[in-house]
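Protocol step 4 of 6: structure prediction from sequence.
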Amino acid sequence: MNVMHIKDLDLNLLRLFNEVYRAGSVSRAAEHLGLTQPAVSHGLTRLRLLVKDPLFVRAPGGVKPTPKAVALAEAVQGALATLASALSESSGFDPASSRRLFRLHMSDIGERRFLPELMAHLQQQAPGVRVATRPVPHGGLTDALDSGVIDFAFGFLPQVKDTQRTALLQDRYVVLMRSGHPMHEALERLRGAALLKALQQLDFVAVRTHSDTLRILAQTGLQERLRLTTEHFMVLPSIVQATDLCVVMPGNIAQGFVETGGCVIVQPPFVDRGFTVSLHWSHRFEGDPDNRWFREQVLSLFAVR
């Protein structure tokens, strides 16, 4: 049995068919479509051959659909309506009514830095919009952005290539320790190489997944002073406050812990201590209205000025 495949179909024939079905007349359909009556008749003939049905039969004042045409019309009208809706939506983004889900790559540090302010803003501007964080291995971020698995990536991601990006904030690595740490006052009086050398007297805690902080510990010869490695960032302030363990971390986040009390910051001259946190997105979605609206919100809140 011969079966018609969608690849065999000129989609313009469906629009032509729908107009004849609605008008009940080949001549009126031709007028509505801006075509000649022979052109519409020819199109119907092509569609009849594809679906193997007459589709319309002569009737007083025009044509009458066959049972096959009635069944086809429901599907065609639904498909055309869906297409029209999609094309309409693609011309803009309505934050007040959207229930769009945006998927973001963020580390746990990034979640703490960006999500509170971002979510407060979205609740005001787009109350139906949803956000989900979805960490992706750094080596797969470009493909994940290009395929739409995630919409945006936040972070210091120097290994991520071939994306659109813009800087959100400049930061540097610092050492966080508890207030009253026995070494704090001595470290405050030191500078440069003397301060780096004095760090050899400290013990450290680090998060296993934060490769950049582990790299700094290694560069500074402090890996032997690592006494605890954890899986989770949010436990670090409690550990620091309860012990003499210290942690290398971004200064922007460390400052938040200082402001809540119980911690102080030391700023050693680490090699490559400065870094830029950026927002990344795919070239493919540069012109997408949803993507453009969301990144405009992020940039209005966090972009380097």
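Step 5 (inspection) to follow. The chain is about 45% helix and 20% strand.
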